[in-house]
Each structure stands twice: as structure tokens, then as C-alpha cells.
Amino acid sequence: MKSTSAAVAASLVCLIVAPVLAQTTPSASPTATVPVPATKRVTCLATTASLKGQDKRDQLQLCLAQARLDCLKQAIDQKIVGESRKSFIKTCVGGDATEQQ
Q1: Are 60 and 46 in contact (CB under 8 A)?
Q2: Cβ contact 60:95 at 8 Å
Q3: Could you tell me the pTM of the whole model?
């Protein structure tokens, strides 16, 4: 009987302590990294990482062309023109969009 009441007491302590611990938030450390959104170029490189040779080059070129087209459509929708459009597309794709890999 004594062990049963000890088990019940331990269970009650867990039921009381668990919600309290769950409510505490860890403090952010000053060295915590902020996630950086991946550019379309990085995404293309990641998706072609498992390929080799000509297949890799072909798929990377197709992916980058599609990324540039997506960025161009976005620039047109936002009515960005001239040098600003070139800069926007370069930034959107994530580097020199005309560079051959």
C-alpha cells in the first residue's frame, strides 16, 4: 500500500510540474542564428546535388532558367523596369542569373 501511495504522489507531482515546465520559454542566446531564406540558385543547386555529369548540368540550367523566368514574372507583376528590374532579378535568383554552371 505504501508503494501505491508513493506512485500516486509521484504521478501527481509529474502532473503539476509538467505544465509549469512546458510554459517556460528558453531564452534566446546572443549567438543564435537567424535562418536565411534560400535563394532560387541555392535551391537549384540542392535539387541537382545527387546528379552527375551532363545530367547535372542540364537540370541545373533548366532549374536556373525557370527561376529567372519566375523572378521576371514577379518583376513584371510589381511593375519594376530598367536597371531596377535587372537588379531585382539578380537578387531574386540569387546571383548572376546568366552565369553558366
Answers
A1: no
A2: no
A3: 0.56
